[in-house]
Design a protein that fits this description.
This protein has helices spanning 36-39, 43-55, 73-91, 93-101; strands spanning 7-13, 16-24, 29-31, 34-35, 62-69. It is α+β, with helices and mostly antiparallel strands. Helix 3 (73-91) packs antiparallel against helix 4. The relative contact order is 0.21.
Length: 131
């Protein structure tokens, strides 16, 4: 029995990390052993995940297996998008150009700022009292 070769990449967004395994197939997307429609409830999250596939006209050509942890559902969707983009860029240099121009290969480095001492939050100060 021949072993199927998976393409693999890691994507990150905020505190979420997604490991994506792709192989030629029928277009089934499984996230943490559940179908994408069951795991991702918002249509916007599904749209974010499908974005790199739609840009490269590869919808329905690959079976995608995702392990994602950390963060919330929005951050996880962004991490999955980043990982799928990286796998597609690895497969074909022409796809890389399309994904790069749409800003999908670059990791979105925005994170929550840490809270500083002497402050109520990362930037918010306590109320000033003159007397």
């Amino acid at each position: 029995m021949a072993k199927v070769k998976y393409l693999h990449a890691v994507g990150k967004r905020k505190t979420a990390i997604a490991r994506v395994y792709m192989k030629p197939g029928t277009g089934v997307i499984t996230i943490n052993k559940r179908p994408m429609d069951v795991y991702m409830l918002r249509d916007t999250s599904k749209m974010v995940i499908m974005q790199p596939l739609e840009l490269t006209d590869t919808v329905g050509k690959y079976d995608i297996l995702v392990n994602v942890l950390g963060g919330g559902l929005n951050g996880q969707a962004g991490a999955i998008r980043h990982a799928i983009s990286r796998v597609l860029a690895e497969t074909d240099p022409d796809m890389r150009k399309v994904l790069k121009t749409n800003g999908l290969i670059t990791r979105d480095a925005r994170k929550k700022e840490r809270k500083m001492y002497g402050l109520a939050g990362s930037r918010r100060r306590f109320q000033y009292s003159k007397r």
